[in-house]
Amino acid sequence: MNYSATLLASLLLAGSLPALAEDLEHGENLYTIYCTQCHGVTGNGDGVNVPAMSVQPRNHRDQGEMSARTDAELFKAVKEGGKSINKSVLMPPWSGNLSDDDIHALVRYMRHLCCESGG
Q: Which of 17, 42, 63, 97 lies in the 20 to 30 Å Cα band around 26?
């Protein structure tokens, strides 16, 4: 059973599907506001800031690359910046703008991009 099927089965048993949809929508809204400038509207790493960047932003639709990262790593990168996980210093820390719940919603949305949306 893959990641998506396991998560869906767990949520169906727990009766949390409406909360999941709400969390996913919240994550998508945050992604649009905070992430698309670098990671692109579709999450492919082709945002409008890319031509001025010395390091290519992560492609959040790349299932192989994203599967190599734990949720904790993604959370830490968003909260504390790329440098916190030995990645690009161009990835800013968003802890001053986003709550932990917001960051969890973003991580959930990134998982959706790579693993559930045909990424």
A: 63
Distant-in-sequence, close-in-space partners of 108: CB < 8 Å, separation ≥ 6: 20, 23, 24, 27
- For the segment 57-83, what is each residue's pLDDT rounded down to a tens digit? 999 999 999 999 999 999 999 999 999
Q: Which domains does the chain have, with CATH numbers?
A: 19-115 (1.10.760.10)
Q: Are 50 and 38 in contact (CB under 8 A)?
A: yes
Burial letters 3-13, b for 16+ CB under 10 A, else e: eeeebeeeeee
The number of C-alpha atoms within 13 Å of 63 and in the hemisphere containing its C-beta is 9
**Reported pTM:** 0.80
**Alpha helices, DSSP H, located in the chain:** 3-14, 17-34, 36-39, 63-67, 71-80, 100-115
